[in-house]
């Protein structure tokens, strides 16, 4: 998907994600932010002078939530995004955000091989990317994107990827996307491609899902991910996973 497609989704993005009242989405996001918070808190206990950089920050959901939880003014937050409309929403929300840290949104393409040049390279940054954003990056640009994350993290940094659970695409994808209609706008008869684990529709939304082993291999990590478990009808299902790569 290109940034023009995301421009047209921005107005409805929050309705589908952080303002969504569906318990499934509420519980998913709550669990995801708890896991990210724990990882960032642990990192900040042993590292000083680092930034938290959110790649594909959208309207700023993750950086705003983490700033409120961490309450550590020495951490600088950066959100990287290339959709002007997403950036406008994020900057608007930043005006009324009640946090402690400095939060800045930057317009860059995550897959640009020059991206690390635009950052002050500290050696223990946390570089994260959430809500299956890797799945909207074209396949021929994925490696550039992951390499950028590792370089910007620095030699003692952390790379964190939050991905939907591609090992259970057939169950999880319909539950998630049917709860996010304001953003995806439409579900077609052939929207759920279980063979390739792709959700797509005829108005241009497309997101690929990956298995746990595929992500471990793309990230170059042997660490098992932390599951984002959500209870549906009294049963617990893994809707997503948080993958961590310790760069050192
Ligand atoms: C699924 S949304 C995730 C937003 C946010 N991280 C969240 O968790 O709510 C993906 C975001 O990545 C952005 N994005 C996609 N490809 C990008 C690229 N190549 N460069 C910069 N941003 C990109 C889109 O504009 C969109 O805002």
Automatic annotation (TrEMBL):
Name of the protein in its database record: tRNA (Cmo5U34)-methyltransferase
One of the GO biological process terms: methylation
Gene Ontology molecular function, alphabetical: methyltransferase activity
InterPro entries assigned: Methyltranfer_dom (IPR025714), SAM-dependent_MTases_sf (IPR029063)
Alphabetical keyword list: Methyltransferase, Transferase
Coiled-coil ranges from the UniProt annotation: none
Gene designation per UniProt: cmoA_1
Annotated SUPFAM superfamilies: S-adenosyl-L-methionine-dependent methyltransferases
Pfam families: Methyltransf_31
Domain Methyltransferase: 47-216
């Amino acid at each position: 998907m290109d940034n023009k497609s995301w421009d047209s989704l921005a107005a409805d993005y929050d309705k589908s994600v952080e303002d969504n009242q569906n318990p499934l989405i509420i519980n998913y996001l709550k669990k995801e932010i708890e896991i990210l918070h724990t990882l960032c808190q642990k990192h900040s206990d042993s590292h000083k002078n680092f930034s938290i950089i959110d790649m594909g920050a959208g309207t700023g959901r993750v950086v705003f939530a983490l700033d409120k939880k961490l309450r550590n003014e020495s951490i600088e937050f950066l959100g990287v995004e290339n959709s002007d409309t997403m950036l406008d929403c994020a900057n608007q929300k930043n005006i009324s955000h009640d946090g402690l840290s400095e939060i800045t949104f930057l317009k860059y393409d995550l897959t640009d091989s020059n991206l690390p040049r635009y950052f002050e390279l500290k050696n223990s940054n946390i570089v994260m990317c959430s809500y299956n954003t890797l799945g909207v990056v074209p396949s021929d640009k994925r490696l550039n994107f992951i390499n950028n994350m590792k370089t910007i993290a620095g030699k003692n940094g952390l790379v964190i990827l939050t991905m939907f659970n591609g090992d259970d695409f057939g169950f999880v994808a319909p539950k998630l996307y049917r709860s996010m209609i304001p953003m995806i706008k439409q579900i077609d008869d052939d929207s759920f491609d279980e063979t390739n684990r792709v959700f797509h529709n005829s108005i241009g939304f497309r997101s690929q899902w990956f298995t746990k082993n595929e992500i471990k291999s793309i990230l170059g990590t042997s660490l098992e991910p932390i599951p984002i478990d959500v209870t549906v009808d009294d049963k617990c299902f893994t809707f997503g996973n948080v993958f961590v790569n310790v760069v050192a």
